[in-house]
Amino acid sequence: MRHLLSAGDLSLTETTEILDLAEEMSAVQDRPLKKLPALRGRTVVNLFFEDSTRTRSSFELAGKWLSADVINVSAKGSSVSKGESLRDTVMTVAAMGVDALVIRHGASGAPWQVTQWVDAHILNAGDGTHEHPTQALLDAFTLRRHFRAHDGGDLSGRTVAIVGDVTHSRVARSNVLLLRTLGAEVVLVAPPTLMPAGVASWPVAISHDLDDVLPGVDAVMMLRVQRERMSGGYFPTPREYTIGYGLTRSRLATLRPGTPICHPGPMNRGLEISAEAADAASSLVLQQVAAGVAVRMAVLYQLLGGADELPLTRVREGV
Ligand code: CP
Is a pLDDT exceeding 80 seen at residue 231? Predict the structure, then answer.
């Protein structure tokens, strides 16, 4: 694997390898001394044209804990704000001698386009409404860990509801692809106005009735309502949305006991998810955040050949 652009590019074997590797990295994350010399001398640039808290900081930690040099370049505060183009920006950064570029951009397909311009490994950290593959990997990691602890099983045969603003969600697209690869069934739940055109051809079930779906699922992933991508206003109104599609306190009670609740963040508390659901004992939201570092360590280790410098046996030994 040279780049990570889409969750759909990962086979079952490749996905399982990354999730298993992330388990090893998670053990490192739990140690007092987290540094591994796997990517010594390598340079990773986080190039973010859209805002981020979780993805950018976890890629930064992941690179640093693997001993890579990591720098962050954001649109705000860079020459992008003076009008420099995407091509000139990535060519400029790449000219400094970069091994990997982690890119978040508002245009779907931007990370793929960058692969045509530079030799560095390209990791998609979210492109428009298209994909967010490392989010899907960390969601799968979190749920797999939950199910293994709960009943010893994996994701295969589970039913996962993905609920909310599917139209604008790159998280939903990547999760559909990866969950299906892992053998899970997916049901998308959204108002008709927030269900994307062409969804009928996706390998999922579709519902507009959250109350009908919730009691039968093994996990529920709530999506953020992306108001910043709804320039013409949005329908339903926030109040109607919460009534029809919010994971409210009363809906929480209709889930089977212990059903895990995920949200990629940032959460709109009181809109798509209530405080009771976000903070429930069955909420995995903070486990997802923690998994983000381990999964991104695994992806960087694999793409940048970390095993050449530090074989996995030495990672396990704690170096
Ligand atoms: N889930 C996610 O991508 O969060 P950030 O926008 O904070 O990176």
Answer: no
224 labelled ligand-binding? yes
User: Of 262, 237, 230, nearest to 247 (Cα)?
Assistant: 262
Q: What is the CATH number of the domain that holds 299?
A: 3.40.50.1370
Please tell me the distance from the alpha carbon of residue 146 to that of residue 260, in angstroms, as a whole number: 8
How far apart are the C-alpha atoms of 301 and 307, rounded to whole Å?
7
State which residues form the domain around 61: 7-131+289-317
Is the CB of 52 within 6 Å of ligand 1? yes
Distance between Cα 273 and ligand 1 center (Å)? 16
Q: Tokens for 281?
A: 């004992």
Distance 6 CA to ligand 1 centre (A): 16
Three-class SS of 215-261: HHCCEEEECCCCHHHCCCCCCCCHHHHHHHHCECHHHHCCCCCCCCE
Indicate if ligand 1 lies below 6 Å from the C-beta of 134: no
Q: Which atom of ligand 1 is nearest to the CA of 57?
A: 8
Q: Decide whether any atom of ligand 1 lies within 6 Å of the 63 Cβ.
A: no
Does the residue 200 lie in any domain? yes
Note whether 264 and 141 are same-domain residues.
yes
Model confidence over 102-127: pLDDT tens digits? 999 999 999 999 999 999 999 999 99
The Cα 88–Cα 86 span in angstroms is: 6
In-domain check, residue 1: no
Distance between Cα 212 and ligand 1 center (Å): 29
Q: Is the pLDDT of residue 244 over 70?
A: yes
CA-CA distance, 275 to 189, in Å (whole number)? Answer: 20
82 labeled binding residue: yes
